[in-house]
């Protein structure tokens, strides 16, 4: 589906919604105090401080790409997300899904799930209707030059200075684009190991869902829905989950602003 969306974008058929400003409410959940409890002789492994939001694309009446046997992309990517959740949770990483069943949250609803979190990553899952079967591609967002936000213009600089917590919703990804590119590179390396014939490097593309994510965000697309045996796609779920799990675990998120630097 991402490849098809690229064709629409090139033809000028993907319109941008009106701009708006949002405040990203960051959630800080303090650790529980256990001052009166004796420390265990062997401290349990601490859960990861990061959260991964997995986004099975489409849902509801939007089936996405359709295979020759009637197989729907929306069903396949939900299975992919469930497998990836297991792989990530095995590494004590917190995981959220933008949908747990056959719902179809809006682009903004999916974005809102991650935009209020600290140390979060967003991974949108797709299945293509084209491309060599058994290959996989990671995408990060590309802002077209004529649509990129003018963050340093005279009109926007005073606003940014006065309201540092405000970001333009339609361009929320702008602040995270470098981290998204790095995350996509980590993921593509792992995909290449498991899906032979895949590209060696990730692809920059105007994937709509990524534009409004104020965190490192990528899309992964597996080829292809155009199989006559659904088991071929089923067999891709575990390698995909392993690739996501390994890449996310190794990806170095920067420390949040104001984090302690070790007492110096």
CATH T-level topology: Aminopeptidase
What's the average pLDDT?
82
Number of helices: 8
The run of helices and strands is: HEEHEHEEHEHEHEHH
Largest sheet: 6 strands, mixed
Shape assignment: globular
Contiguous low-pLDDT stretches (5 residues minimum) are 8-43, 148-163
The CATH architecture classification is 3-Layer(aba) Sandwich
- Per DSSP, what share of the residues sits in E-state strands of 2 or more residues? 15-25%
| Radius of gyration from the alpha-carbon trace, in angstroms | 20 Å
CATH homology-level superfamily: Zn-dependent exopeptidases
Number of strands: 8
| Major beta sheet, strand line-up | 3-2-4-8-5-7
Element layout with pairings:
Blueprint: H1 2-10, E1 21-23, E2 51-56, H2 73-89, E3 94-97, H3 107-115, E4 120-128, E5 135-141, H4 157-162, E6 166-168, H5 177-194, E7 203-205, H6 208-211, E8 217-223, H7 231-234, H8 237-250
